[in-house]
TrEMBL record:
Source species: Candidatus Gottesmanbacteria bacterium GW2011_GWB1_44_11c
Name used for this protein in its record: Peptidase S11 D-alanyl-D-alanine carboxypeptidase A N-terminal domain-containing protein
Superkingdom to which the source organism belongs: Bacteria
This protein's UniProt keywords: Cell shape, Cell wall biogenesis/degradation, Hydrolase, Membrane, Peptidoglycan synthesis, Signal, Transmembrane, Transmembrane helix
Family assignment from sequence similarity: Belongs to the peptidase S11 family.
Length: 326
């Protein structure tokens, strides 16, 4: 009688053939299950690479600007007692190099040079075409002749403040600010800090003497640099005279620039005068000759126009501009 062997189960059979074969089988199954996972990871990696490539467009190299020509005093001559001003700063506009400083950190009264800051803040908070109703005319001193109740544009008030040096114009610009004149003055001081006028402080928009209303010659040079780079201000301060009106063409105001150097000294393009008994004679001047641009600040002078003429002549007689690296 032939006895047939009873078939064994796969695991029973395999275990007899090789006790570790079933472990190999489990490992094989595990590898098969991992294949989709590897595929998913690779796809995500490809997508990430594509995303990085898409968002990482190479930035073209920034051009390196050529340095401005550097002013060099070729004679060793500097101003002396012939310039009467207590505070003086002369600065080259393009290189920001100081050509001459005298008591540049001395606190002095700015007088109406303050109106440059008033104008900068006004241009920050108003549009030129905004219409202002003159509430009252209480500011004393130099005036453009505003009438209470007159409706006039911000642009024409700026002409009045910068050309005629009208205290009434500066006062009206500040008082018209929706949050009040005191808040406008706060903005003037914030602007001063933004311009790094670290030692200066303003208490009114006209430039009246008193209290903490003080500036330094160096700080005023920074204000002048900012003002002359503003196209609206640069245009206005260079105008010898102009007539402006209210919006209804009822009131007309003839404005004359107090800066006696305009139209008389070659290259002079503004920018602002100032005078009070305490401040003495103040003058900030912009002059350009042969493409060389200079800001001059003269404070507490006995002869601001004479001092400035001497300083202008001194600059162009004693300085030359050299290209760096040549």
């Amino acid at each position: 009688m032939i006895h047939m062997a009873r078939p064994s189960s796969f695991f029973h059979y395999s275990s007899r053939k090789s006790p570790f074969l079933w472990l190999r089988f489990i490992f094989l199954i595990f590898l098969i299950l991992l294949i989709p996972l590897f595929h998913l990871v690779n796809n995500k990696k490809d997508l990430l690479i594509k995303e990085i490539s898409f968002n990482s467009t190479p930035t073209p190299p920034m051009p390196i600007p050529s340095p401005a020509p550097y002013p060099v005093n070729t004679t060793g001559v500097y101003p002396g007692d012939e310039v009467s001003a207590a505070g003086v700063v002369v600065v080259d506009v393009d290189s920001h190099v100081y050509l001459y400083k005298r008591n540049d950190d001395m606190l002095l009264s700015p007088a109406s040079t303050t109106k440059l800051m008033t104008a900068l803040v006004a241009l920050d908070v108003y549009n030129l075409e905004d219409v202002v109703t003159v509430a009252s005319v209480s500011a004393s001193g130099q005036s453009m002749g505003l009438i209470a109740g007159e409706k006039i544009t911000v642009e024409n008030l700026l002409y009045g403040a910068l050309i005629q040096s009208g205290n009434d114009a500066a006062f009206t610009l500040a008082q018209h600010y929706p949050q009040g004149g005191d808040k406008f003055i706060d903005l003037m001081n914030k602007k001063a800090q933004a311009l790094h006028m670290d030692q200066s402080y303003f208490t009114n928009p006209m430039g009246f003497d008193g209290g903490e209303h003080k500036v330094t010659p160096r700080d005023l040079s920074l204000l002048a640099l900012a003002a002359i780079q503003n196209k609206t201000i640069a245009k206005m301060v260079a105008i010898p005279q102009i007539t402006v009106s209210d919006v209804n063409h009822v009131y007309f105001h003839k404005l004359s620039n107090i800066n006696q150097l305009l139209g008389k000294i070659p290259g002079v393009g503004g920018i602002k005068t100032g005078w009070t008994e305490a401040a003495g004679e103040n003058l900030i001047t912009y002059v350009e000759r042969n493409n060389r641009k200079i800001i001059l600040v003269v404070l507490h002078s006995r002869d601001r126009f004479g001092d400035t003429i001497k300083l202008i002549d001194w600059v162009f007689d004693n300085y030359r501009w050299e290209e760096m690296g040549k």
